[in-house]
Write the C-alpha cells for this entry.
Amino acid sequence: MPKQPIASDRLPPPSGHFPAGIIAPTGRMVFISGMLAKDSSGALVGAGDITAQTRQVCENVKAAVEAAGGTLEDICRVDVYIADMRHFPQIHAVRREYFTGTPPASTMVEVTGFTHPEALIEITAIAVIP
C-alpha cells in the first residue's frame, strides 16, 4: 500500500504543496539529514537564488533516498528551513516538480542562519521504503 494523504473537512486547506498528514505504509524508515544546496564536491550551488538552491536540495534529498533503495514517492515527511518566508511560492513551485505524486507532510520555518553563510534553504526528510 502506498502512502496515503490525510484530509478532512474539519481541517484548513494546506497553504502549499503538502497534505495535512500522511499515513505511512509498512516498511523501513529512513531518516535523511538536513540537506543544503551543495553539489557532490561540497560547493554551494545558486548563491542568492532560492529556486536554484531549492532544486539542488531536492536533488540531494532524491539522491539520499535513492541510495537507501527508495524514491521521492517514499518520502512521508519533510522539514524545510528557510532564510526568508517570502520565498515560499518559489520553493513550492520547485517542490511540485519533484513531489509529483502524493506530497509528503511538511513543516516550513524561517531561521536566522545555516552552516553555510550563503545557504537559503535546508530540508530534512523521513521516508518509509516498502
